[in-house]
């Protein structure tokens, strides 16, 4: 049974970590498309219209893979996690229903108008459709993170005859982790979209292919990241304080902190270490005195509970994985801040001139090579978030072992292998089409269609306006 549970966890991890690659870009690109289409309507600069058409191709390709890859996730709640669905389904299933009916259907319903409505609906109606696609993608992230945050810090429910019954619906939605979980994920999605746009634009700038055109998209993404990158660092710090308050075992595992500090004595922070869970200590560590108290409580002598002072049955597994996954994620976040402000400095030095910016080839290459890093950071963040919640599937209320379906290891292994092959095919297909999109570039001869609005004349007839 334990082998089957571990395999089910591995299968869900594989499908979730593959699927999450796509929604984060869909959200970021959709918001970017709203920005460039609004700029086109405001300035009448045809370049912004061409940007909207160019980047929307990548959005629809990404959206398609995201939809297909996400279907197996929800099925697993019934096939692999029937115990969880039975106990927590009253709230969790309701939230997933909101995500499907309120968010996904909104996005899917308007994406056709956004793609094929040029010249068929008015320009204002088309912008509205693009806004609805961005809103649908954003609402999807909101409801998914509400569900996941509730699993991290359950609220508004009581255990009654083996089922979690909702007693306060709003408290369950706005649970302690929800504001930070939603904000952290949403800003990560916006960052991912901005870095993909900036990285692809930098690629074209390096090739000196339509530099004036791609400088516009690069500039929009840069200005967004000057705000988003430091904002994400602040959100990460604030959510870390919440983790130590609501999930002390996860916080201690992330930092390799084994022993609770005494009164008036700050907890040291391990910059680098090798946690040894069997021995309940670090084999070695490079530490900064009092710094963990500052990070966890914003106080020099704040009390931070050590992992060794908790029951082993309640400790997260794979502490070295948590320790280094968190540091990779945080390190990437600080690199984003550095790159954004380094580029802003170079841009100001170049006085906004394209030719002067093109001379900074190392800087442009840095943007191209940074494109995978938002994805790496998101994956590391999910590892920390989900592995750190173990051994609970609903923190403090339902253990993972209690939520699993009674399956044979062979059944789970077969489905896991099938999903793995399916996802490899999807990934290869995506890269083939994305490469074609990148090589084709933007059509700079593309002209905006005429606005097809019709108005009634005084006789009740209609004419083209």
TrEMBL record:
Domain of life of the source: Bacteria
Compartment(s) of residence: Cell inner membrane; Cell membrane
Keywords for the protein's UniProt record, in alphabetical order: Cell membrane, Electron transport, Heme, Iron, Membrane, Metal-binding, Transmembrane, Transmembrane helix, Transport
UniProt cross-references to InterPro entries, sorted A to Z: Cyt-d_ubiquinol_oxidase_su_1 (IPR002585)
Keyword field contains Ribonucleoprotein: no
Regions crossing the membrane: 20-42, 54-75, 95-118, 125-146, 185-206, 218-235, 321-342, 363-384, 414-434
Topological relation to the membrane, as annotated: Multi-pass membrane protein
Biological-process GO terms, alphabetical: aerobic electron transport chain
This protein's record includes keyword Cell wall biogenesis/degradation: no
A GO CC annotation given for this chain: cytochrome complex
Major location category of this protein: membrane
GO molecular function per UniProt: electron transfer activity; heme binding; metal ion binding; oxidoreductase activity, acting on diphenols and related substances as donors, oxygen as acceptor
Family: Belongs to the cytochrome ubiquinol oxidase subunit 1 family.
Protein name: Ubiquinol oxidase subunit I, cyanide insensitive
Species for this entry: Thiomonas delicata
């Amino acid at each position: 049974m334990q082998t089957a549970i571990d395999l089910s966890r591995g299968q869900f991890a594989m499908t979730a970590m593959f699927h999450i690659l796509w929604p984060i870009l869909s959200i970021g690109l959709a918001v970017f498309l709203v920005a460039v289409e609004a700029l086109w309507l405001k300035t009448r600069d045809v370049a912004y219209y061409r940007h909207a058409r160019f980047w929307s191709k990548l959005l629809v390709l990404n959206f398609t893979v995201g939809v297909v890859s996400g279907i197996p996730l929800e099925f697993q709640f019934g096939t692999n996690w029937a115990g969880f669905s039975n106990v927590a389904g009253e709230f969790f299933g309701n939230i997933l229903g909101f995500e499907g009916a309120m968010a996904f259907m909104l996005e899917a319903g308007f994406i056709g108008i956004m793609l094929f409505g040029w010249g068929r609906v008015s320009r204002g109606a088309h912008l509205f459709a693009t806004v609805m696609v961005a809103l649908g993608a954003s609402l999807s992230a909101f409801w998914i993170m509400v569900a996941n945050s509730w699993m991290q810090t359950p609220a508004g429910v009581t255990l009654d005859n083996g089922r979690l019954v909702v007693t306060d619906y709003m408290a369950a939605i706005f649970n302690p982790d929800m504001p930070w979980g939603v904000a952290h994920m949403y800003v990560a999605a916006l960052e991912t979209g901005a870095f993909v746009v900036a990285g692809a634009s930098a690629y074209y700038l390096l090739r000196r292919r339509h530099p004036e055109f791609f400088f516009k998209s690069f500039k929009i993404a840069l200005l967004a990241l000057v705000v988003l990158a430091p904002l994400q660092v602040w959100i990460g710090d604030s959510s870390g304080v919440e983790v130590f308050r609501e999930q002390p075992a996860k916080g201690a595992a992330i930092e390799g902190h084994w022993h609770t500090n005494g009164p008036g004595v700050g907890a040291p922070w391990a910059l680098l270490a090798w946690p040894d869970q069997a021995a309940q200590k670090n084999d070695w560590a490079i530490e900064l005195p009092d710094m963990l108290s500052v990070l966890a409580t914003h106080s020099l002598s704040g009390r931070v509970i050590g992992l060794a002072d908790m029951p082993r049955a309640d400790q997260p597994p794979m502490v070295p994985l948590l320790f280094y996954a968190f540091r990779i994620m945080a390190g990437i976040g600080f690199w984003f801040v550095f790159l954004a402000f380094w580029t802003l400095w170079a841009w100001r030095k170049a006085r906004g001139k394209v030719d002067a910016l093109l001379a900074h080839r190392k800087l442009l290459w840095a943007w191209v090579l940074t494109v995978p890093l938002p994805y790496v950071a998101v994956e590391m963040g999910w590892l920390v978030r989900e592995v750190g919640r173990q051994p609970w599937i609903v923190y403090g209320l339902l253990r993972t072992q209690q939520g699993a379906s009674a399956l044979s290891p062979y059944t789970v292994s077969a489905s896991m292998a099938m999903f793995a092959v399916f996802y490899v095919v999807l990934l290869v297909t995506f890269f083939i089409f994305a490469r074609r999109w990148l090589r084709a570039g933007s059509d700079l001869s593309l002209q905006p269609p005429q606005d097809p609005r019709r108005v009634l004349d005084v006789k009740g007839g209609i004419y083209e306006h």
